């Protein structure tokens, strides 16, 4: 940043060289014009740099939001798959239990007694 300001100051002094030739003998005024031009150029460059940084920050924030949305979506998908596996496991157990009742390996009264602790 400091190097940029120094370069801008030097460029401003060189650019106002023709103005300095016209204003020969007025060193203080020449110096004032050079400083004014360099400060103006520095302000413009600084504004552009800050704007560029703001744009980069906004892009970074957007990227972080997209990343978080993907993480949330992946987490929900994982939870959904876990619930689906649990449902399949319970349905498998229920089918097996029904088959055992159907084959009369377990009597319905036994299941009722176990479920309701009677």
- Largest beta sheet, briefly? none
Order of helices and strands: HHHH
Which percent range describes the beta-strand content?
Answer: under 5%
Radius of gyration: 39 Å
Low-confidence stretches: none
What portion of residues is helical? over 70%
Q: Whole-number average pLDDT?
A: 79
Number of domains: 1
Find the count of extended strands (DSSP E, 2+ residues).
Answer: 0
Instruction: Give the oligomeric state.
Output: single chain
Question: What's a quick, concise take on this entry?
Answer:
The chain crosses the membrane at residues 27-51. With 118 residues, this protein is an all-alpha fold.
Draw up the topology in text.
Blueprint: H1 2-15, H2 17-22, H3 27-102, H4 108-116
Helix pairs in contact: 1-3
Transmembrane segments: 27-51
Keywords: Membrane, Transmembrane, Transmembrane helix
């Amino acid at each position: 940043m400091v190097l940029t300001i120094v370069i801008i100051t030097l460029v401003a002094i060189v650019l106002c060289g023709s103005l300095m030739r016209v204003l020969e003998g007025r060193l203080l005024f020449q110096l004032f014009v050079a400083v004014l031009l360099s400060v103006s150029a520095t302000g413009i460059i600084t504004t552009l740099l800050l704007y560029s940084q703001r744009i980069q920050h906004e892009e970074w924030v957007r990227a972080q939001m997209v990343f978080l949305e993907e993480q949330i979506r992946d987490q929900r998908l994982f939870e959904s798959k876990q619930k689906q596996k649990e449902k399949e496991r319970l349905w498998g157990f229920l089918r097996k239990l029904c088959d055992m009742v159907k084959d009369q390996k377990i009597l319905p009264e036994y299941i009722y007694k176990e479920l309701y602790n009677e």
